[in-house]
Amino acid sequence: MKEGPNIAQIAALIGDPARANMLTALMSGKALTVSELAGEAGVTLQTASSHLAKLSAGGLLRQRKQGRHKYVSLANDDVAHVLEGLMGLAAGAGQVRTRTGPKDPALRAARVCYNHLAGDRGTQMFDSLVARGHLIIDDGHLHLTPSGSAYVRDLGVDLDGLTRGTAPLCRECLDWSERRSHLAGSLGRALLARFEDLSWVRRHKDCRLVTFTPTGTRAFDKAFPVASTRRSMGAPAHQ
Amino acid sequence: MKEGPNIAQIAALIGDPARANMLTALMSGKALTVSELAGEAGVTLQTASSHLAKLSAGGLLRQRKQGRHKYVSLANDDVAHVLEGLMGLAAGAGQVRTRTGPKDPALRAARVCYNHLAGDRGTQMFDSLVARGHLIIDDGHLHLTPSGSAYVRDLGVDLDGLTRGTAPLCRECLDWSERRSHLAGSLGRALLARFEDLSWVRRHKDCRLVTFTPTGTRAFDKAFPVASTRRSMGAPAHQ
DNA sequence: TTCATAGTTCGATCTTAGTCGAACCATGGA
DNA sequence: TCCATGGTTCGACTAAGATCGAACTATGAA
């Protein structure tokens, strides 16, 4: 008994409502200041400061000082991945937030997950890349094939700049709304950034929502066509 | 702000030390009684009962009554998946349990994750199946190819009985010690069960440890040979 | 230098929830 | 029928920690 890492501390860290709100806000991928996070969580500045210190000590956050501002963001993709998993459990258990708001359907369609595209659009892109052999799973990791490299280069992604980094290029991330994989990792981030540059999408200012422009919708569907096997058959039976 | 499912409740549920100990114990995949879990958590029976009621209400557990015993197990693979993710974060943050015990290296080698094989041996099996085309990722899901179906049938797994179930056949699960994928889902469970039948492995009575017999080691390495690209090159650089 | 803003530290308060003793219910065996 | 065992419910106690006011530090602007 009692083997393995200690879950309780880290889960308790996420388990406080104020801290959970902050982490959820940071899932937008943007670095936020202490004051902004205090607003998100609905607590005063001192309380927020104390919470953020604890989250940082727990390794969940990364902080950068810039002038008299302090910018806080999630530590890495792993943290985002666990948070998405928790959202999946919460959604499954019917623990949807009481004030679920009108934005919920839009969020399920497209949103940012830390820094990459998630939701229906995110899984569409992932599936499309896999179906056409641009992305394969091998050796336990996700890999970009040569055809995939060429493809994302054509889309205008600076792949060489990415591969120099130490962070993994491709990662899977499980979607809480779709319960399927979408693409994370530095490539996932770069693609979303590219979509913004191309004005295919617009990230909402203060939430995780991502809206597609009319031209963006067409271009995206052309770049990442859906396999005929699914989506035409309605939602896949699952669970 | 405040969009998406409510993480805090579910995380707080996991965040109590006593409950976290119970959940960790249940990662062994076995159904345990209330008394046994009370022992695991180091609390009295009435405290354990209260905790288990909360965990069940949160959808994390499944309970079965049998005579005057009540058997408790994890609700599903999703819960196990999130718990593994949390263990990964905790391990990464150096939150390893203080009394980490001598069993830790053995646990990293082979252990059960809810009901399937995890640890180094688990990722070996996963990688081997993928490398030989028995397992592919497609449409966002893991799929068993025809050659894979034949292969596991040869190993003695009753595949037809499995495919009738509603639970997904193949799933990925992220390993906290290896930080790589291993095989979950009903096939993962069936394979581990088969290894036990064949006396390749023995599950430890009261922890997650899985030990390979000498003949089991040989047979397993023959059935799931390691790709020459890794494992010969030492630990992969990651993160 | 002076002021304003961003953030931290400290201390006091107060609520939440984990804990267990005791009594109670249910099942199974003798 | 009686007893032992497994589990639940209730209530009281207690400890942990979230919260905020107040005082303090640091950066930047005027």
From TrEMBL, chains A, B:
Residues 1-94 form the HTH arsR-type domain. It holds the Pfam family HTH_20. This is Transcriptional regulator.
